[in-house]
Write a structure and sequence with these properties.
273 residues; mainly alpha
Length: 273
């Protein structure tokens, strides 16, 4: 028998993902959010650069909910296909779970990238000011990086407590992420760069990482065009580095713990919710 490797598990997950309803769900969400936001800020009186910041804050804040839905549905599919045998009945649960999480994370990044490019294209086509494309892509990557820990935890929640618990925690994460920045479109309404708002607390709130990493990347690129000066850019870059470090350390530590315990895990919810 061929040894189970991460590369083989990853290929297996990717093949099965082609027929998964998660793919059209992510695509529909990306087109809806990127398209609606792009059309709105193409014609609204708001400053389009602040509008872009608000868009990435919303895109990042929604990441916990998307993660919760994705992990909950993915685990349900595995249960229906054979009581989770593809995850728990394999030679290495660590490899299987790591591959599942990686593919889901890649799907989430792809959705964020589609939404980002559509939003950027609509604003540019309307002749509005837009952040540099590189900053927008970096923001989408920041959403993915900030979501890595959430995928690991949400997979565990979905397997231990079920789909609804995973989605519920994701919905809570959406609320927490928005509240941590002072509410939806706080910076847009006040004309401020709100990505660093309450950063000392947000550094320790994983729900806030996707929106902060995305927002700070964009704000550092648009601060000077908005008239905030080079000192603001330095402060935003420092804030981005701090929350990026917190995200990297927290994600590495928790994922390592979860993978270390993966081979001991038993799905106590086999047979449905």
């Amino acid at each position: 028998m061929a040894r189970m490797t991460f590369a083989r598990a990853l290929r297996s997950e990717a093949v099965r993902m082609r027929r998964s309803p998660l793919v059209p769900m992510h695509l529909a969400l990306a087109i809806a959010l990127g398209g609606c936001a792009g059309l709105y800020f193409s014609n609204a009186a708001w400053d389009s650069l602040l509008g872009a910041d608000a868009f990435f804050q919303l895109l990042g804040a929604g990441a916990p909910l998307v993660v919760g839905i994705s992990c909950g549905l993915a685990v349900d599919v595995e249960r229906d296909a054979g009581d989770g045998a593809n995850l728990l009945g394999v030679p290495s649960r660590r490899v299987a779970l790591a591959a599942k999480g990686t593919v889901l994370l890649a799907l989430g990044f792809a959705a964020a990238l589609v939404a980002t490019l559509l939003f950027f294209a609509l604003l540019a086509a309307a002749g509005r000011d837009v952040p540099p494309l590189a900053a927008c892509i970096a923001a989408a990557a920041g959403i993915a990086a900030g979501s890595a820990l959430l995928y690991a935890v949400s997979l565990w929640i979905a397997m231990r407590f079920g789909r609804n618990a995973s989605i519920g925690v994701g919905a809570l994460g959406l609320v927490v992420a928005l509240a941590s920045m002072g509410g939806l479109a706080n910076g847009l309404v006040t004309g401020s760069l709100s990505g660093a708002f309450g950063l000392e607390a947000a550094m320790f709130v994983p729900f806030a990482w996707p929106s902060r990493l995305a927002s700070l990347a964009v704000e550092a690129a648009v601060a000077v065009p908005l008239g905030f000066g080079p000192q603001a850019v330095e402060a935003l870059a420092a804030a981005l580095a701090r929350i990026g470090a917190a995200c990297a350390v927290g994600t590495t530590a928790l994922v390592a713990v979860l993978l270390a315990r993966a081979n001991r895990f038993e799905d106590k919810r086999r047979g449905g919710e």
